[in-house]
């Protein structure tokens, strides 16, 4: 891709482990041997790579496609939730299930059951997180 233009990120080379890369439903090998990571990005004029997002961040649960942002928005409607992060959990039958990390608001102590009941009031059943973890903070990168 020309510098500044966004596209799919692919990796290739002797240090790439095809066994590891091939285990995710989000990775695949193209016809020229590149492993497509499922991420999107762009190169600057010097060749530096900037990751700009995911090509497909949906969770694929048994044929249903779930947008993590939709589940996060439902969880954030609960007064005790300050932050939420939704992610796929591998499942041998359904492909993926819905997982969520929730950071409680200051001084509030929600429990998993309360948050799942709340989510069920705002989402279709298949979108309600199968696993919900209450954590002190969300992981961050630069």
Question: What topology emerges from the helices and strands here?
Answer:
Elements: E1 7-11, H1 18-21, E2 28-29, E3 35-43, E4 49-54, E5 59-61, E6 64-66, H2 68-76, E7 81-91, E8 95-104, H3 112-122, E9 131-134
Parallel strand pairs: 8-9
Antiparallel strand pairs: 1-3, 2-3, 3-4, 5-6, 7-8
Gist of the model:
The chain has 142 residues and is α+β, with helices and mostly antiparallel strands. It has helices spanning 18-21, 68-76, 112-122; strands spanning 7-11, 28-29, 35-43, 49-54, 59-61, 64-66, 81-91, 95-104, 131-134.
Largest sheet: 4 strands, antiparallel
Indicate the structural class.
alpha+beta
**Poorly predicted spans:** none
Question: N-to-C SSE series?
Answer: EHEEEEEHEEHE
| Total beta strands | 9
Q: If you average the pLDDT, what whole number results?
A: 86
Give the fraction of residues assigned to helices: 10-25%
Distance between the termini: 25 Å
Give the number of helices. 3
Account of the 3D structure:
There is one protein chain. The protein is an alpha+beta fold. It is 17% helix and 37% strand. It contains three helices and nine strands; from the N terminus they run E-H-E-E-E-E-E-H-E-E-H-E. Strands 1, 2, 3 and 4 form a four-stranded antiparallel β-sheet that branches. Strand 7 (81-91) and strand 8 form a beta hairpin. The longest helix is centred in the last third of the chain and has 11 residues, at 112-122.
């Amino acid at each position: 891709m020309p510098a500044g233009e966004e596209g799919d990120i692919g990796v290739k080379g002797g240090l790439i482990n095809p066994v590891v890369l091939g285990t995710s439903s989000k990775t695949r090998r193209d016809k020229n041997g590149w492993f497509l990571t499922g991420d999107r990005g762009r190169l600057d004029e010097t060749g530096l790579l900037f990751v700009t997002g995911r090509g497909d961040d949906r969770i694929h649960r048994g044929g249903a496609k779930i947008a993590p942002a939709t589940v996060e928005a439902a969880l954030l409607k609960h007064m005790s939730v300050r932050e939420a992060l939704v992610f796929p959990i591998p499942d041998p039958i359904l492909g993926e299930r819905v997982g969520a990390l929730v950071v409680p608001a200051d001084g509030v102590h929600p429990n998993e059951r309360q948050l799942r009941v709340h989510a069920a009031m705002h989402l279709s059943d298949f979108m309600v997180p199968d696993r919900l973890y209450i954590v002190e903070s969300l992981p961050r990168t630069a």
